[in-house]
Amino acid sequence: TLFRSPTPDQKVFKLLAQTYAKAHSLMTDASSTRCGGNFASKGGIINGAEWYSFSGGMADFTYLHTNCFELTIEVGCEKFPPEDELYSAWQENKEPLLLLMEMIHRGIKGVVKDEYGNPIKRARISVNGIRHDILTAEDRKS
């Protein structure tokens, strides 16, 4: 039985994952099976809960209690690849990683201020259609 665990920000998570996978030649290659599965029919991505599910992990915590969205990117099938495979693994993943890092510039950014221009700590920010509010940081860094 497949278990899906979508979040209110599912569209954002999917966009981030697709950005990485589409830039990675092997992740979207329909002719290959990788790591015991063929993910090409899913565009090279999968909701992690469909693969292995557990609650209370770091990704759950940071999503629910901070302003951080975490993705798990399986860049290879071996936890400790041989040294002679590291350079090719880097070459396969370099551009996808850079594109993913560029995604930081999407979305809403700024500082929530009061009428005097002072930053407001722990201001609640809501987006219509997404049931996951975020709060501005205590230290004004997020």
What is this entry, summarized?
It is built from four helices and two strands.
Attribute tags:
142 residues, elongated
How does this structure look, described?
With 142 residues, the protein is mainly alpha-helical. Helices cover 32% and strands 7% of the residues. It has 4 helices and 2 strands, in the order ααααββ. The chain has helices at residues 10-23, 48-51, 58-65, 83-102; strands at residues 124-127, 130-135. It has a two-stranded antiparallel sheet. The termini are far apart. 8% of the residues are buried.
List strands and helices in order, with pairings.
Blueprint: H1 10-23, H2 48-51, H3 58-65, H4 83-102, E1 124-127, E2 130-135
Antiparallel strand pairs: 1-2
| Overall pLDDT | 84
Strand content: 5-15%
What is the CA-CA span between the terminal residues? Answer: 38 Å
Find the structural class using helix and strand composition: mainly alpha
Low-confidence stretches: none
Shape: elongated
Strand elements, count: 2
- The SSE string, one letter per element, is HHHHEE
Main sheet strand line-up: 1-2
Using the CA coordinates, give the radius of gyration.
18 Å
Biggest sheet record: 2 strands, antiparallel
Residue share in helix: 25-40%
Please, how many helices?
4
